[in-house]
Amino acid sequence: MLENKMEQTIAQDELHEECGVFGIYDLDGQDVASTIYYGLFALQHRGQESCGIAVSETQGPKGKVSSFKDMGLVNEVFDAEKLERLKGDIGVGHVRYSTAGASTRENAQPLVLNYVKGTLALAHNGNLINANELRHDLEYTGAIFQTTIDSEVIAYHIARERLKVGTVEEAVQRAAAKMKGAYSIVVMSPRKLIGARDPYGFKPLCIGKRDNSYIITSETCALETIGAEFVRDVKPGEVVTINGEGEISSDMTNAIDPCKQGRCIFEYIYFARADSHFDGISVYDARIKAGRFLAQDSPVEADLVVGVPESGNAAALGYAMESGIPYGTAFVKNSYVGRTFIKPKQSSREQSVRVKLNVVKEAVAGKRIIMIDDSIVRGTTSGLIVNMLKEAGAKEVHVRISAPPFLWPCYFGTDIPAREQLIAYNRSIEDIRDLIGADSLGYLRIERLKEMVSGLPICEGCFTGTYPLAPPTEDIRGEYER
Ligand code: SF4
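Structure for Amidophosphoribosyltransferase, as requested:
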């Protein structure tokens, strides 16, 4: 009975990142669509609902953009033929998971906008908290929207500003100055590639270079994948522009006092890939540190430390290194779960979690296990995994979480459910331990978050209820669907 109830909610028991962005400009005039494809493939963990690519020829007629976008994973949406048809030496790509705006084909990105100065294509990661106001501003002046996503609001504001200023990068800066919330965006204009990161630096954004190509993308893992070198991070509040001569110009007009910045700490804990780094901190190192802190703050005697893949693995290794308890592999994960995968029915004997994750019985039977995971949201998945370890013969299961308990919503692009649905809401650690059936339970202490990233200013709002900027007073999610 408990398992059936758990199965009902299991599909919603994972947190999702909103999006990943990838932009490239090849100054030698080579086609870039296939490179964008591989870049997006490396960013697939940031969004699995839809994806798209838009390209243009910088020497061709101004305003001619070829694009394709659809629902599904990168390798489901694109094939060699579709990529072949996308001709252009400048382009942007996007992978999406919807936290605001419906999950439909129209809302897939990049967003392509034709206006009097030519064509803009834009890809956006993050969530604006004043998107409704910005949208109403435009609607009162006659704009008609095709989608329900923030990105279209951003694109319209850029287009409107472009009519008042001399360059597209000035227009991006002026539009960005009006936006409140989290955004890392890449914009393709007919002859320039532009990146902008919000002043708080909620979401990562970096610049790379491969031969005579320049890249602006969400994570460094995408640079590694395409064989590009990391040039630098886009700074919080910065607008960077790459022109046809390969010059990178920077505008810091929108920057704020660095002490007030607020990088999403959950990028380091869970969202970003372990082989990425941003703002000088390696995601892998941050996770190892979290594991070490857990071993220091919540020690327990055991025979084996295991991680729940993928993001629990590095923290588990950190715990093992600090405690001296051996690190092992208890789970085998099947990652080939695409959008079209048929979820098991409640009545069927196959369970969602088991379809994705299996326990290696030989590794855990008869042992006291420390299981490290990155978070407990509603608790349904954690309960099932603890149960699976016990069924496989584990003598004890001690759960350690490389984040503090989730207690508050996120307004900046993470789909944390309503407070009442969070397992930690109004419950003690002992209550949670009991609910998930663990022998002991320990969370990362809040004070450790900043230490994880060597003192970088961070957002930890979903754990503390205090955000880098005042949250909206109304529910900003899904208004356009109502
Ligand atoms: S509230 Fe949490 S998930 Fe949202 S940006 Fe802040 S740290 Fe990240």
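The longest helix spans residues 283-297.
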